[in-house]
Each structure stands twice: as C-alpha cells, then as structure tokens.
Specification:
The structure is a single chain. By secondary structure, the protein is mostly beta strands. It is 0% helix and 56% strand. It has no helices and 11 strands. The strands form 2 sheets. Strands 2, 4, 5, 6, 9, 10 and 11 form a 7-stranded mixed β-sheet that branches. It has a 4-stranded antiparallel β-sheet with strand order 1-3-8-7, with no helix packed on it. It is globular. It starts with a strand and ends with a strand.
C-alpha cells in the first residue's frame, strides 16, 4: 500500500513536508509522484519522478516552491512544500506506476490559511 502523511493546517508562506511510504512495493516503478484534489475539481498532477531516464516534473503552479525527492533505501517519497499559498489547499495523494499496476495512497489534507 501507499501511505501518505504530513498534511496539516498552516498559514500562507509556511512550509510542510509530505511523506509517502511505498514499502509494500519494490523499486520497479516507472513513475511515482503527487497529485492533489479540491472538492468539485479534477485531480491534478503536482510533481512526479520518472525513471528511465530519471527526471522530475512539476506543475507550473508549484515550480520553484515544491521539491520532490525520494529515499530508495526507506522506500519513501517526499514533497517539500515551501511558500505555501491558500490555493495550495487540497487533499494530496501519492501515486505510483509500478510493474504490478498503478496505485493510489489515501490522501492527506493540506490547508493553507491566508
């Protein structure tokens, strides 16, 4: 299973770090990343790491503020979110495209107050 954590309530300008454990899977993923969803809107991609070649991607709205990283030894994915804005408020999900299929973790709520 994918398990996300680290969400919370912060003020605009503050930071959070989300964590996603994929200990139930191997390291044979094609891509792993973060999505977010606001009620009434479609889920949108935030950032992802693709392998073969190893590349990272960010949504334009988070470039320069968010940083995705992973710890292979711990099978963890992270999303460091700096300079948070109220429009970053959403439920954040981790997603992995593994050899066995595509999986979603449960969401973690991020709320940014103005």
């Amino acid at each position: 299973q994918l398990q996300a954590s680290g969400g919370g309530l912060v003020q605009a300008g503050e930071s959070l770090r989300l964590s996603c454990s994929h200990s139930g899977f191997g390291l044979d993923f094609a891509a792993i990343g973060w999505f977010r969803q606001v009620p009434g809107k479609e889920r949108e991609g935030v950032s992802c790491i693709s392998v073969g070649p190893n590349t990272t991607r960010y949504a334009d709205s988070v470039k320069g503020r968010f940083t995705i990283s992973r710890d292979s030894s711990r099978k963890r994915l992270y999303l460091r979110m700096n300079s948070l804005k109220p429009e970053d408020t959403a439920v954040y999900f981790c997603n992995g495209n593994f050899a066995s299929g595509t999986y979603w973790g449960q969401g973690t709520q991020v709320t940014v107050s103005s």
